[in-house]
């Protein structure tokens, strides 16, 4: 009798009377509908690198000086072309001096000897010496001058590459932080640039010493080296006065002395290294590609 009762017993699932099951299913359906993967939309999370890029700048003096020069020299294109043309001018001067000294037959040019072609009129072919003969006329002193010129050209070339990469970075700063395109440089006053710099300081904190920058702070950064040099001159700490016999006192300040003072007191080796310039160039290229 008991076995018959047990066989007729029906069991009912608890899920049928569970009030939370329906809510859970509705929530799963709603969450599934909100999933962007099934809707065909891809979401890319891009970090805000522009805001973090210009904060806590290490060398504000050089940065503000380049910023001022970028504005006064009318943008990146003018600065880059000027530096490249300076290199081309130096190479042209070296070639012109070499050509005029070793590759021109001045005796034929001034009529001291007849031209090799036996013409009554002197032509360029009669005056210009062939290239092989010009090279054969070089001596040891000429090769030494060529070596010095090549060394100067290489150093100047590395300097130009460094400046161009730095001003590429400055161009990026003007476009992303100050919102000033290169075409608008000539129509933007330096006062407007200073106002935008102060706004960027309040947002990104380029200078960690102050919350806000004044115009006087910006000018102090730009003119720090010149003011320091004026103070050294006023205190008579620089050896710029020389007593020349029969001529008296003579004052001179060479560029080499200025470079050494700036290098010792205001520069670091990593700021002028070529590797640092290449890293700036690679960072600019990566940001532009993104």
From TrEMBL:
Keyword flag tRNA-binding: no
Pfam families xref list: ATG9
Subcellular location: Preautophagosomal structure membrane
Cellular compartments per GO CC: autophagosome; phagophore assembly site membrane
Gene Ontology terms: biological process: autophagy of mitochondrion; lipid transport; piecemeal microautophagy of the nucleus; protein localization to phagophore assembly site; reticulophagy
Keywords linked to the UniProt accession: Autophagy, Lipid transport, Membrane, Transmembrane, Transmembrane helix, Transport
Annotated transmembrane regions: 90-109, 140-161
Classification via InterPro entries: Autophagy-rel_prot_9
Main location: membrane
Membrane topology term: Multi-pass membrane protein
Role summary: Phospholipid scramblase involved in autophagy. Cycles between the preautophagosomal structure/phagophore assembly site (PAS) and the cytoplasmic vesicle pool and supplies membrane for the growing autophagosome. Lipid scramblase activity plays a key role in preautophagosomal structure/phagophore assembly by distributing the phospholipids that arrive through ATG2 from the cytoplasmic to the luminal leaflet of the bilayer, thereby driving autophagosomal membrane expansion.
Family (UniProt): Belongs to the ATG9 family.
Protein name, entry field: Autophagy-related protein 9
Organism for this UniProt entry: Bactrocera latifrons
Source organism phylogeny: Eukaryota, Metazoa, Ecdysozoa, Arthropoda, Hexapoda
């Amino acid at each position: 009798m008991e076995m018959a009762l047990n066989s007729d017993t029906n069991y009912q699932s608890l899920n049928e009377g569970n009030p939370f099951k329906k809510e859970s299913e509705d929530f799963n359906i709603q969450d599934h509908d909100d999933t962007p993967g099934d809707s065909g939309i891809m979401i890319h999370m891009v970090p805000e690198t522009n805001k973090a890029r210009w904060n806590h700048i290490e060398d504000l003096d050089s940065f503000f000086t380049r910023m001022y020069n970028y504005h006064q020299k009318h943008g990146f294109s003018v600065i880059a072309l000027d530096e490249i043309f300076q290199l081309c001018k130096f190479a042209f001067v070296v070639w012109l001096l070499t050509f005029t000294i070793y590759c021109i037959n001045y005796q034929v040019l001034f009529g001291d000897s007849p031209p090799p072609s036996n013409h009554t009129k002197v032509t360029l072919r009669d005056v210009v010496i062939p290239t092989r003969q010009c090279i054969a006329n070089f001596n040891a002193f000429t090769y030494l001058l060529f070596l010095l010129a090549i060394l100067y050209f290489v150093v100047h070339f590395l300097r130009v590459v460094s400046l161009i990469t730095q001003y590429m970075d400055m161009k990026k700063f003007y476009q992303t932080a100050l919102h000033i395109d290169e075409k608008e440089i000539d129509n933007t006053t330096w006062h407007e640039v200073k106002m935008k710099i102060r706004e960027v300081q309040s947002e990104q904190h380029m200078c960690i010493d102050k919350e806000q920058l004044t115009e006087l702070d910006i000018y102090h950064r730009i003119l720090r080296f010149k003011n320091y040099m004026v103070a050294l001159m006023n205190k008579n700490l620089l050896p710029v006065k020389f007593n020349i016999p029969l001529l008296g006192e003579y004052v001179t300040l060479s560029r080499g002395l200025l470079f050494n003072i700036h290098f010792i007191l205001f520069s670091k080796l990593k700021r002028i290294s070529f590797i640092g310039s290449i890293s700036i160039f690679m960072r600019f290229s990566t940001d532009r590609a993104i």
